[in-house]
Specification:
With 392 residues, the protein is α+β, with helices and mostly antiparallel strands. Strands 1-2-10-7-3 form a five-stranded mixed β-sheet. Helix 6 crosses helix 16 and helix 12 runs parallel beside helix 16. The longest helix has 32 residues.
Length: 392
């Protein structure tokens, strides 16, 4: 970045995106950035931060902002994830993998998800840590079952996912994050190679059988896609369940409204994704010079698409800091946008709608004790480390 790119504007802002104040509430920071410097150079993390909805959407669309930002030599498995690929490689993979996520297939998941939700809630009572007893086990059970993973192996996936998260979500406070991620990826790779060769009637088998003309997925691509689906299908939904329930419990009028009108379930999920979704930032790397908001952004610069900021942009969402479970506006960016819209978004939405609906129905006295929530440290994600609740 050239030093004159900022012109005469001097903005004094605490740019520690992992600082304690921003971890508790990043929205005040994003509102200030949007007002003072919407295309902002963050010197601490050496990246441009976009906070306006229009700019973030433009960033998702602009092919000069590349998704290929992972060290493919250091992490070859991550380098084959669709979220880290550009067209035409992304287009081909998306077309082949998309056949396994048709609306008909996803609708068929509902009865089994409902059964797993009720099974977990049967054991819920009194004070409990919500993430460990429900928000983490449910997505792991759902995605593992769809992929034909035996129940005994689910705990192994949680450990491997946790190791990978340090690199994917930018846990910069962990000096061993690279070594941990390499170990987790190696374990995933070996496991799914065995599973892909022996599975039948599962999502893994569907990926192996997917064709487009004479084209089909290679074994490396099947393994990478399985790893992505399990990692994203678990971590994203876990975080959405936890932050979603916290948001509802902290807004009792909206909680009461949703409880009294379950038909608002689908719009409530969209609103929870907008209001406090699991995605904070999506990163890109500039491959051709770009001008945005009067700034010249050079080749090799990093750009942080501020999804959480865009989802609270008052120019796009009236009263953005108010939770409204009946807000009929599907423009939130929590699952990405355009060609990089999350492939498993429909499954995550379905799980969250079923789960929150069942919790509110079965536990009318559900409440938050004092000091219930503890936020995690992560550069790109927005998640809770702990959420204590009282099921009553």
């Amino acid at each position: 970045m050239a030093s004159d790119d900022l012109g005469d504007l001097e903005v004094v802002i605490d740019d520690d995106l992992l600082g304690p104040e921003l971890r508790l509430n990043p929205h005040t920071y994003f509102h200030r950035l949007r007002a003072l410097d919407p295309v902002h150079w963050n010197a601490k993390y050496k990246a441009w931060v976009l906070t306006r909805y229009e700019d973030v959407v433009t960033g998702f669309r602009d092919v000069r902002l590349s998704s290929e930002r992972i060290d493919a030599d250091g992490f070859p498995l991550l380098g084959r994830w669709m979220v880290f690929l550009n067209p035409p490689r992304h287009t081909r993979l998306r077309r082949l993998v998309g056949n396994a996520f048709s609306p008909r297939v996803i609708a068929g998941f509902r009865p089994r998800i409902e059964g797993l939700v009720e099974q977990l809630l049967d054991d819920a009572r009194g004070p409990a840590e919500f993430i460990s007893v429900f928000a983490s086990p449910l997505p792991a059970m759902v995605i593992a079952e769809l992929m034909g993973v035996p129940p005994a192996d689910r705990s192994r996936f949680l450990d491997w996912s946790d190791k990978i998260a340090g690199v994917v979500f930018g846990a910069l406070n962990r000096p061993d994050r690279r070594a941990r991620a390499e170990a987790g990826l190696d374990d995933f790779d070996a496991y799914f190679r065995d599973l892909a060769e022996s599975s039948d009637g599962t999502l893994v088998a569907a990926l192996a059988a997917a064709t487009e003309g004479d084209d089909r997925l290679t074994m490396d691509e099947i393994v990478a896609t399985c790893t992505l689906l399990l990692f994203a299908g678990h971590s994203t939904t876990t975080n959405l369940l936890a932050t979603g329930l916290l948001s509802l419990l902290e807004c009792p009028d909206e909680l009461k409204r949703l409880r009294s009108d379950p038909s608002l379930g689908a719009s409530a999920v969209e609103e929870l994704l907008r209001f406090e979704g699991p995605t904070g930032i999506m990163a890109r790397v500039v491959v051709e010079p770009v001008e945005m908001g009067g700034r010249r952004i050079g080749v090799g610069d990093r750009v942080f698409l501020g999804v959480a900021a865009a989802n609270r942009d008052p120019a796009r969402f009236p009263e953005p800091d108010r939770l409204d479970v009946g807000r009929h506006d599907a423009g939130q960016l929590g699952f990405g946008y355009g060609i990089h819209h999350c492939l498993g978004a429909a499954v995550a939405r379905l799980e969250t709608e079923i789960a929150l609906g069942a919790i509110l129905r079965r536990f009318p006295d559900l409440c938050l004790p004092d000091g219930a929530a503890e936020w995690s440290v992560g550069l790109l994600g927005r998640s809770l480390r702990r959420l204590q609740v009282d099921f009553g």
